[in-house]
Amino acid sequence: MTTADADGLLAEQLLRLTRRVHRIQKRHLEGSGLDITPAQSRLLRTLTHYGSPPRMADLAERLEVVPRAVTTLVDGLETSGRVRRVPDPTNRRVIRIELTDAGRAALGELRGARRAAAEEILAPLTDEQREVLGGLLNTLVDGVAMPAGAERG
To answer: How far is CA 72 from CA 75, 142, 153, in A?
Structure first.
């Protein structure tokens, strides 16, 4: 098998794994009773990366979606009481998105559902295989090969 064929096979395996991860996470999410979509879950998790409430445009950029998609997600999360729109203290034309106590509680439940999904997906692997997989995934995500014997911190 040529390198191109092997790379194509690996790419297909990664896509199949990604779809499986999404299916399993969605099942665990639905089982949590939170009535939240995977996209809403991602937006909630993204909000935790900011020191202060971000603008909708900031969220759209970070999520790599069009601003209209963020508006729809925020509308749903605001209706459920998980986020709220707050005025920017320095520019009244700007609206920021703030996580509520209900949103923080939902994040805790979401973490549990994600952990359960990860346990299900990783169940066939030994601890050593999980460690190797983690290193390989870090290399692929970062796009930089780690020197032999190097530890990630």
So the answer is: 5, 31, 37
For residues 149 and 89, what is the distance between their CA atoms, to the nearest angstrom? 49
Give the SS3 label for residue 125: coil
Angle (nearest 5°) at CA 67 between 65 and 69: 65
> Number of helices and strands (H, E) in the chain?
6, 2
pLDDT tens profile 106-133: 999 888 888 888 899 999 999 999 999 9
Say what the pLDDT of residue 29 is: 80
Q: Number of C-alpha atoms within 13 angstroms, CB side, residue 98?
A: 11
Q: Name residue 83's beta-bridge partners.
A: 99
Reduce the DSSP state of residue 49 to 3 states and report it: coil
CA-wise closest residue to 77 among 113, 112, 39: 39
Compare 18 and 101 and report the one with higher pLDDT. 101
CA–CA separation, 79 vs 11, rounded Å?
Answer: 39
